[in-house]
Each structure stands twice: as C-alpha cells, then as structure tokens.
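Amino Acid Chain and Its Fold in Token Form
===========================================
Purpose: to set a sequence beside its fold so the mapping can be learned.
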Amino acid sequence: MKILILGAGKMGSFFSDLLSFNHDVAVMESDSKRMRFVYNVFRFTKMEEVEEFAPELVINCVTLSYTVEAFKALMPHLPQNCIISDIASVKTGLKEFYEASGFRYVSVHPMFGPTFANLGNLQSENAIIINEPQVKENGALKVRGTDYMGLVFFRDLFNSLKLNMREYTFDEHDEVVAYSLSIPFASTLVFGSIMKHQDVPGTTFKKHLAIARGLLSEDDYLLSTKNRIRMENLGTIAASRPTLARRRLRSVLRTERLLMKPPPIPEPILRRAMRKPTFRISWSLPPCTWRRSG
C-alpha cells in the first residue's frame, strides 16, 4: 500500500519507521531539516510530489492545532479513492469535517504518546479506533461512517504491536478522554504549581515530578485542549451514576479553582470591605464574580 504520513515529528517518525518495511511510505514535511533522521521512505516537501505518489492512505501526524488545516491543504492533491486518517488525541470537530470532506476516513488515537511510552515495547499500552457506523436514509448514504478497509488496516497494525485495542464512536471517545486524560493532566498541573525543591525527595514525589516534567514538555495547544474538561460528558454520566458523578464533578471544579486566579477586586467593593469588618469577599465558578455575603 502507498502510505503518506503528514509530519515528521515523534509520532510521524514512529509510524514511518514502523510501516516502511511492508509498504511504500512517503513523509510530507514543510521543514526538510526535520526529515534528516527519517529513513527508507520518500521525502516530500511539495504538493506536486504528493500528486505523483498518489497515496492510498494518509496518516495525519501533525500538531493537533494544525490537523484540519493540513487536511484542507492536502485534499485537492489526493486521488478520490484515498483514505484519510488522523491520530489526534482530541477529536472535536473531526467527525463533521470528515463527513463533509467526501473522502473515506478512519480516525485513531494511540494512547501511548512519545512523552512517557517506550515506543520499542508497547505491549502494555492502549489504542482507540473510531468505529462510526454508516447511516442510510431511503437507500441513500446519509452518514459515511468509518471506512471498513481503513478500520481493518489499523486493527491489523495495532494487533501486530500487541496493543490493548478498543473501538468507540467519536462521542464515546471524547467521554473516555475526558476522564483518562483531562483530569490527570489538571491534577499534575496543580502539583507542578505548588511543589518546591526537595533535598531528599520520596519515591512518590520523584515519580510525580517526572510526570510533571514530561507533561510540561508537551505542546502548549495540546495541553490547553486536553485540559478543557467536557462537562457535558460528566453530566451524561451523572444521570446514571449520580453520587459518583457529583463527587467527580466537585473534584474537577476544585481543580479548576486552583488553576484559575480570581479577578481583581473592584475598587468600590474593596473600600466598603475595609470600612465594614463583617463584609466577606468570595468568588465563584463559573463565571468568576464578586458577591456580598454575611
């Protein structure tokens, strides 16, 4: 199969190295210097080279903030039967984009980012494949859904890596990510914001510190997007598991309070507070507002 990989970052290099032994692989990267250590593949920097290569599958490995932009720039140069795919950890807006694109598609989320995982041994790691069902109305295809051949390709690939693999819809994926990524990320940011140097750190402290360092080395856009907790998903679960969901929701809100700074105190309120000792100042989420209490 002819496979085009967009981006020569850590994950793009990983997939090019993994796939180049059994497929014809090309890497498209605007910065040619990033392809210095990419081997056994075609190296492209221009769209004309993509047209000549005529890929059967595209794997988009660019930075999260440029995923859709990269697709839009590339699609006019792809054959119509090409399957497009992404490895983005946040799928917001991708379902609508894929359905409007007119291309066959498959979306995956390798849960083993290069920050912490050992890419040479992934047997204990996880991966998600988006399996969105087709929808027909009056015999006509209304929702294209995940392409079957693309689905089979990534099933075989992840099985060859002995990954723990699950298949979800886009909505189910977002719910899983809201719990498994966003909340640990927020907790780690809180730890990083209050920690101080320890001359004799304990084992747990050292492990948390290593996690915090790895997390803060991530792309800023990726961090801000993953930490945007999807409250609607928490609300959905609250309907069936109210006690647990309420506890988790309160935990998320407490974390958000620690991460946010209160707004400056309006001067009239500050003057009144200084005159009247019983006047207490508080702020609430969301949004951040000042109110009189007591």
Remarks:
- The radius of gyration is 23 Å.
- The chain has a mean pLDDT of 77.
- The longest helix spans residues 170-194.
